[in-house]
Structure formats: C-alpha cells, structure tokens
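Listing S7. Sequence submitted for prediction.
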Amino acid sequence: MRPQMLLPDNVLSIYCLKGELTISDLDIAGFIGNWEDDGYCFLFFRQPADEAVERLLGKHPGLILEDQFTMTYRQWQGGFEGPLKIGRFILSPPLLKKVAQGDEIGLKFDPGLVFGNGTHPTTLACLTAIEIACAGGKVERMLDLGTGTGLLALAGASLGCRQVLAIDNNMLAAVTASQNIRINNLQQRVLAVNGLAQSFVDLPSDLLVANIGYPVLKELLTAESVRHHHWLVLSGLHTSEVENILKLLEKLNVVVLKHWHSETVWSTLLAITAA
C-alpha cells in the first residue's frame, strides 16, 4: 500500500471501528488508509463510504462502528501547508518548490494521515536535539524508534548519519515513512521497518531517538539497552512523567545534557551515556 498525497482542502470521511482489521479487507473505492491504535482502527476515505463500511461490518461481526467524522485534511493535520523552518531544517510539502539557502537543509515531507507534521512540540525539540548530537560529525548510525512519518530519521540522515533504521509498530506509519524516504532520495541511508521498538532497541547505534511516550520508553531503558548507544534523544513525555525517566537515567549512569519543556505539557531529553 502506498499512501496517496492529500491537499489541504481535500475532505476526509473517517470511520472509527472498535476491533482489528487487516489492509487486505479494504478493497473499497476512495480508501486512503487504516490507522490502528490500541484495539481501534480509523478508516479514512476520500468520500463517504457508509454502505461499504456497513458491508465490512457484516463480514466481520467482531467490529463495532463507534463513530464517524467528516473534516478537511487541513483540520486533520493542523495546517501544515508551507515551508516550516526549524533550526537549519526547511520542511516543505513535496509539491511546494522551496530551495534551501546557505547551510539550510531542505526536506520534502508528506505526513499523510500520520502524526508528525513537524509542528508538535516534541518533534520540534527532537529536531533540535538531533542537530546538536550530530554537530560533531561522529554520529554514523541512528536508530529511530516510533518514527511516525520518518521526519526525525530523515533529519539524521541529512545531517550525515550513514545508516538510519526507522521503526514503527503501525503499518501505515512505516509505509508513510518509506514514502518520505523515497521523496528525499535517501533510500541508501534510511530504512523504515514495521515492528516493535522493543525488538530493535538493542541494535547498536551512535544515536538512539525515541519519541514514543512514557509506557514504552520506561520499558526500553534498561542497563542492557543503553550500553548499545552513545547519544539518546527521548521524548513524548508529559511533565508528570519526566521525573521518573530522569531518575531512571541517573541509575543507568546516563547524563542528561539538555531538557526541553514546552509551553504545554511535553518534555524532551538529550542525554549521553557515560564513558
């Protein structure tokens, strides 16, 4: 499945179903994508698909239609339409011609239906943290857990990382990340894989990025796992959760170099393992 590019004024018909559904079941006209999350799936269409969804429910008695919504793509993705400058990075949609100047780094970027359009506080902080970690030119291997759209993996590759592995347990996210890798011609440096972060965290890297949320993050941070990495960028943390992670890092002999607090409730950490 290859995600279709959406424009800001495209209207989305979204159906929230309780239960699990495989992509092979969704040969329906206008179908865009299936976002699976914690026992629910969100089906996206370019036009209303009430009858098709009703037939789908008839084929799968275990599925329950919980809700349905209609909104524009602009409303869904929060208005990412023009160039966005974050540090040296210039993020722009694939159809927008924006040329980076000087030491700027241009990244073409289509978030599709997936979280991670560059405007979330955790994404902004992670991009800055990755830039700091890569400034010395010694980060060659990067592991991006919970890659979403692949934006952070693309940033690492564009800053000189030669091998970047981008992991997400959501199939739609992994496919979207793969598309963004192709758009930026970074296939030789970045590989997106559908899988669990826990299955990959022990792969050695110079830079581990995990914008993934507290429940998974606390599971990933063990004495065994951190010894495989040098730099750590940890995000997706609420203010109420970050103190527990800071205490855990101290026990693991990991030094926190910088702590970003957003104006809302989010925290991001840049850390380094002690020699």
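Caption to Listing S7: primary sequence and predicted structure tokens for the chain studied. The chain has eight helices and 14 strands. Residues 11-77 form a domain with the Alpha-Beta Plaits fold (CATH 3.30.70).
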